[in-house]
Amino acid sequence: MANLLELPQVADLITFLTRSFLINGHTNVSYDSEDLFLGITNLVNLRQITTPESDVTLPVTPVTRWPFYVFLGGSLFCLLSSSVCHLFSCHSHHLNLTLLRLDYAGITTMIITSFFPPIYYIFQCDPQWHFVYLGGITALGLFTILTLLSPTLSTSKFRAFRALLFTSMGLFGVVPGIHASIVNWSNPRRNVTLAYESAMAIFYLTGTMFYVTRIPERLKPGWFDIAGHSHQIFHVLVVMGALAHYGASLVFLEWRDRNGC
Ligand SMILES: [Zn+2]
């Protein structure tokens, strides 16, 4: 029987947060709500990922999962803010402009948090790089969010500047990517992780290119008002970039569980 890799899922995050809340607020945790959340966990039980190359004889010492919870939290915020934006933006022009800022802030949050699992697990044995890289992307991301939320900097005049910030976040992964390749040169997972990380950079940068150029609607005005315009393509590519980060994280998480530092 193949070995199983336990990964946090959205239901785990909900259970984790709810349990903390219930334990802090009520000492007598209701068994009904406990059963409910266990039911959700079982319903969305995708965490048992089979790794064909796994060896059952090797002991597995699971490493911490909190970077995945950060990523899941950021992704949930992004999807929630985007849903709210696109659901209510038809209300009025003023609300449309405000919600669009929230939409981009959500996307930026997901980009920031998507860096946490791969950087954490790749540099788990050199924690000083966590501070450098995770601190760097968080600072850059927060600056981008502040820029996006600022009414002055949200105007079309500063569109190129905002695009530069998105590009910087995409390119930010190049530095730890090269660093990780050097320090893990002999690691058999190197090429797979590099492929995922390259895909991440390409997805984020291509998404930014659509954001800046407003292709295809600028080529055929009116044709893409409902479907296929640059904002939708941008959304899809950002999710693909985050998924590529997720793939790289899984590869290295499995390695860390098995080999430690
Ligand atoms: Zn949007």
Tell me the helix content. Answer: 55-70%
Strand order of the biggest β-sheet: 1-2
User: Which whole number gives the mean pLDDT?
Assistant: 79
Distance between the termini: 26 Å
* Structural domain tally: 1
Question: What is the H/E order?
Answer: EHHEHHHHHHHH
* Biggest sheet architecture: 2 strands, antiparallel
What amount of the residues lies in strands? under 5%
List cofactors, ions and other ligands. Answer: zinc ion
Spatial shape:
globular
- For the secondary structure, the number of strands is 2
Q: Which structural class best describes the helix and strand composition?
A: mainly alpha
- The number of helical runs is 10
Any overview of this molecule?
This protein is mainly α and 261 residues long. It has one domain (65-259). It has ten helices and two strands, in the order βααβαααααααα. It has helices at 10-25, 31-43, 66-88, 93-114, 116-122, 128-149, 159-172, 174-183, 190-213, 230-259, and strands at 4-5, 49-50. A two-stranded antiparallel ribbon has the order 1-2. The chain is globular, with a radius of gyration of 20 Å. It starts with a strand and ends with a helix. Residues 23-55 have low confidence and may be disordered. Zinc ion binds next to helix 3 and helix 10.
